[in-house]
Amino acid sequence: MTRRVEFNETDLAGIVHFANFFRYMESVEHAFLRSLGHSVVMPGLQPPIGFPRVHASCDFRRPLRFEDVMELHLLVAEIRPRSLAYQIRIRRLEPGPTEEIGTGRLVVVCVSKNPDGRMEATAIPESLGRQLEVAPAELLALPAR
User: Which range marks the domain in which residue 98 is found?
Assistant: First the structure.
């Protein structure tokens, strides 16, 4: 996914506020699932399921500034029966040269909502699971700092 940094995403120092990186990671996750014909919320299933986060982290290398163009790559790092782990790479494209900005990690759990409102971990739907595969180790290897 490619996007431009908006003015409202920056702080007084003129750089992207760290909290926005988590929004970017969520956006690329949603785009990934949409590309497979799914969503982070699947109300059409009975019971309906969703994918809440149980872990989110981001390591920052360089700042992003207003009007920078970034590229986000989502890699499936791990597939378990009820959870997925994603690695997200963030790179600045413009202004050049292209450089690594940071790396994020999201872990999501597939849950169904019981009639009483409680969420319970459940198996990832087969329709989604068969479309997923863990990225090759060489792509998941993090660049040296």
Answer: 2-135
The answer to the question of residue 64 being in a domain is yes
Burial class (CB in 10 A: 0-12, 13-18, 19+), 40: middle
Specify the number of domains making up the chain: 1
CATH of the domain at 33: 3.10.129.10
- pTM for the predicted model, two decimal places: 0.91
Residue 134: is its pLDDT beyond 70? Answer: yes
Residue 144 lies in a domain: no
Has residue 145 been placed in a domain? no
Asked whether residue 90 carries a pLDDT value surpassing 70, the answer given is yes
Please give the pLDDT value at position 145: 67
- Does residue 76 belong to any structural domain of this protein? yes
pLDDT tens column, 53-62: 999 999 999 9
The β-bridge partners of 15 are 65
Q: Is 11 tagged catalytic?
A: yes
